[in-house]
Amino acid sequence: MTKTRWILAVAVLLVLPALAMAQPETPVEEWKGKTIMLVGAHPDDDSMSQGTLALLKANGNDIWIVLLTTGNVGTADPDMTRWELAKIRRQEEIDALADVGIPEDRYINLGYDDGMLEFQDEQEVVEKIVRLIRKIRPDVLFTFDPGPTYRRWHKSDHRAASYLTADATRVAMWRLLFEGQIIHEGLKEHRIPEFMFYDSPENNTWVDISKYAEAKARARTRYISQFGSGWDKYEGPTRTPEAQAAAEKDALENMKKVDGRYVEGFRYYKGFPDSMGK
User: Fold this and answer.
1) Backbone dihedral region for residue 239 (phi beyond 0: left; psi -120 to 50: alpha; all else: beta)
2) pTM of the predicted model, to two decimals?
């Protein structure tokens, strides 16, 4: 064996275990009895994972959705106010979650203004996320991919949500950080063992959501203020039956398919938060 071939053989032996470790030991489709927490920036960010969330909920997992802003700015409607849009987007999110089996009492919104998350006090935001991690004590956390080996580009609120959530997962495991939560609130430090990063260019795990594709499509249509004519001129939370059917068809046609199956992709990581980007 030449020196070059020997080096390549050794490299393959070193890389293969790492690739194997990148996959969940139990396929996501078989996860049961886990507590799942998703953190996003806006009402509708969870739509990137709603097929997987529907599957996990149907399998008996406890799903929590934590969104950091009210979504009170994202509209081109000249007559819309922040107050009205915040109320509309809350109800859209609740309706979408109902479509995938997640009840309203599992939805938490921290109430920050849309488009301004990266200008908030970072310690305050991290402390709030840490408190929720210590209360909910998730086995798996879903969030925007902060990036493996580099800082992943996202638009502003998504970027802030990604990095602040990553920081919070690290802080939550140390009892001497935000120790007031432990001393005065009766909480306990918590380390999240598994992560599912969505909106990632480095997907290593694909979840077959074929059974839940129609539910995901229906949920997607609830965000009327964000998609279609509702963006320019919001005229209410309902469509005609014909328009609703067309919206669901469009949502289904735009879902990713692999070998005839509807799928959602994630960068799966298992380990300490400090190494999620390595």
Assistant:
1) beta
2) 0.90
